[in-house]
Design brief:
The protein is an all-beta fold. Helices cover about 0% and strands about 45% of the residues.
Length: about 110
């Protein structure tokens, strides 16, 4: 992975977890060939480990195939919530949790 290709290493992305694609706003250009072009997604793999879905892939420079970053996305269901995480030098780090119930108990206001 290459810190010279990105503006900010592992930027905080809040709840934005990407299962595919690239965060191009953080790509400043390839440190190897010096060009700023599209980023390729390569070596995409999906795996299921203990009820957790894991998607991994590499971000490569379109021109010279230099490895920019390795991307990891996870999805799981814990109790009554869907849990998402993302960790990538280019795309950043993020976590999200969404209730699978019609009304999220965390969003309900107490009556008293």
């Amino acid at each position: 992975m290459c810190g010279g290709c990105v503006g900010t290493e592992y930027p905080e992305r809040g709840t934005t977890c990407l299962e595919g694609g690239s965060f191009l706003l953080n790509f400043v250009g390839c440190a190897q060939c010096g060009r700023r072009d599209f980023v390729l997604v390569n070596n995409r793999a999906e795996d299921l480990q203990g009820g957790e879905e894991i998607v991994t892939y590499d971000h490569l420079c379109k021109n010279c195939h230099h490895l920019i970053a390795h991307h990891e996305y996870t999805f799981s269901v814990v109790d009554d919530y869907q849990e998402y995480t993302m960790l990538c030098l280019l795309c950043g780090r993020a976590e999200d949790s969404i209730s699978i119930l019609p009304d999220d108990p965390r969003q309900m206001t107490p009556l008293f």
